[in-house]
Specification:
- Helices cover about 30% and strands about 20% of the residues.
- It is built from twelve helices and 15 strands.
- Bound molecules: adenosine-5'-triphosphate (ATP) and magnesium ion.
């Protein structure tokens, strides 16, 4: 029989439904803000993200306004060039040849389109680009998408026209004819409060570094990451690099552990304890207490209110965002990613130090509390580099008898292990101790 072709073109409606289905409204807004921040980062010369180094974002502002009728986001972060708009910014998904900008969080080429389609039917995206040289100005433009009309037509292109310039170089997106569920969320004051809390937490470092985010006219304040420090309490602060991905970790005591032993006691409404995982500065997991960050991993050390008070922050950064352990919604971690697996082993160890302390503390509570009271809060990102978390030594706690173990092994295999532990420069003594802890955890489980 003569070979014929069957038509497998996706219908536009199916395509739009698929890309918008699994993303939450607040995550769409985060995607749009990420684009603004990628724009600003680009204008600042694509600096490498770092837990310690402040990048000056004080010139940049993102304003978000919403009501039952419409959504608006406007930034002054440099805008989209006409050329990029025509060839690349509006395509669904990146082409192979398009490399992401250094250290950007944009990677898939879908975020903006997915967000506006999720919001409503009447979309206008305007952009004004700064003039690099006198006379070489970019023409301000707008892209208009009438979603029902676009769904009916056979072409995938959108209309681009010239437009009045915005008051500052940047992008403005206005969506009207909102979907019913979106409009209902926007008119619910609880949504605005939740969004503010998320933005304050997820963009905390940008806001600290000067960025202004306004929601319905009011500035969002930065959530403060503070840790306790004294002679007896010292947070961990270290890093390692593997295959082009830099991993920085800060972990320590952010508050006194709770005294309650009741696992059902949820305590304060917003418990900030847990792990915060960032990829190229994007907050992917916040205050996480799940298996993903090691709690209850292989059935061990499930989260319990006794452990409240611990905060760990881990930043993965890579020139190419596609090397990061991220899922496409950027709201979850790819736990099978090689670098994440290595980092997780480190996170579990750090969590373990805290768990052990909260256990020891139970039998010497008064002594622990009086030592803890002498500690002071400092911003987590300013804590000094420190290879070992330190928690109070409690003299009134019963002490287990220690023995010293000595053995020799070929240098090569010791270095191999150090590499696998994520710190090639680690001392042989530390490799020995970690190997013991590792074997103990694997074979015996639980504490020491
Ligand atoms: N506010 C903005 N300022 C400057 N450029 C922008 C802005 N919004 C979008 N862009 C440009 O449009 C492109 C497409 O954005 P989109 O969010 O769809 O994909 P992405 O950011 O490349 O990848 P991802 O799907 O991971 O978000 C961006 O790469 C960027 O060049
Ligand atoms: Mg994006």
């Amino acid at each position: 029989m003569e070979v014929k072709k069957v038509n497998a073109d996706p219908t536009k409606a199916f395509f739009v439904h698929t890309i918008t289905r699994d993303i939450k409204l607040e995550d769409c807004i985060l995607d749009l803000i990420d684009n603004s921040l990628d724009g600003a980062r680009d204008l600042l010369g694509s600096p490498e993200p770092s837990l310690e180094r402040a990048i000056n974002f004080s010139k940049y502002e993102v304003a978000i306004e919403f009501s039952e009728e419409q959504f608006l986001i406007r930034d002054n972060c440099g805008g989209i060039s006409l050329d990029d708009a025509i060839n690349y910014a509006f395509t669904f998904g990146r082409r192979e040849a398009d490399d992401p900008d250094a250290y950007s969080i944009g990677v898939y080429g879908i975020g903006m389109k997915r967000s506006v389609f999720k919001l409503g039917d009447d979309i206008v995206i305007r952009s004004t680009r700064p003039q690099p040289k006198k006379g070489a100005g970019e023409e301000p433009f707008k892209v208009t998408i009438d979603v029902p009309g676009w769904l009916r037509s056979n072409v995938w292109d959108f209309d681009l026209d010239s437009a009045e310039p915005l008051s500052a170089p940047g992008v403005e997106i206005v969506v009207k004819s909102l979907r019913e569920n979106i409009s209902a969320e926007f008119s619910n004051p609880a949504f605005e409060n939740r969004l503010r809390r998320i933005l304050s937490r997820d963009y905390s470092r940008f806001i600290e570094y000067g960025l202004t985010i306004r929601v319905n006219g009011k500035k969002v304040k930065a959530f403060e990451f503070n840790l306790l420090i004294s002679d007896a309490i010292k947070p961990f602060h270290g890093e390692f690099t593997l295959k082009g991905v830099r991993v920085q970790i800060i972990a320590g005591m952010a508050a006194r552990p709770s005294d309650t032993q009741d696992p059902d006691d949820e305590g304060e409404k917003e418990d900030r304890s847990g792990w915060y995982v960032l990829c190229n500065d994007r907050m992917v997991l916040a205050a996480d207490k799940s298996e993903l960050t090691g709690w209850g991993y292989e059935q061990k050390n499930r989260w319990h209110p006794q452990y409240r008070g611990f905060i760990g922050i881990i930043l993965f950064s890579a020139q190419r965002a596609d090397q990061l352990p991220l899922t496409t919604t950027k709201r979850n971690i790819d736990r099978d990613h090689e670098i994440y697996k290595l980092a997780l082993a480190r996170m579990i160890e750090l969590t373990r130090d805290w768990i052990d302390y909260t256990n020891r503390r139970k039998s010497a509570l008064d002594e622990a509390k009086s030592i803890e009271r002498t500690a002071v809060y400092v911003p987590a990102f300013t804590t000094p580099t420190n290879k070992q978390q330190v928690y109070p030594r409690l003299t009134s706690a019963p002490r287990a008898q220690d023995v010293t173990i000595q053995y020799s092994k070929p240098l090569r295999v010791v270095r191999e292990l150090a590499q696998r532990f994520g710190e090639p420069g680690m001392s042989a003594r530390e490799v020995g101790s970690k190997s013991f802890d590792y074997a103990h955890r694997e074979l015996v489980g639980g504490g020491d």
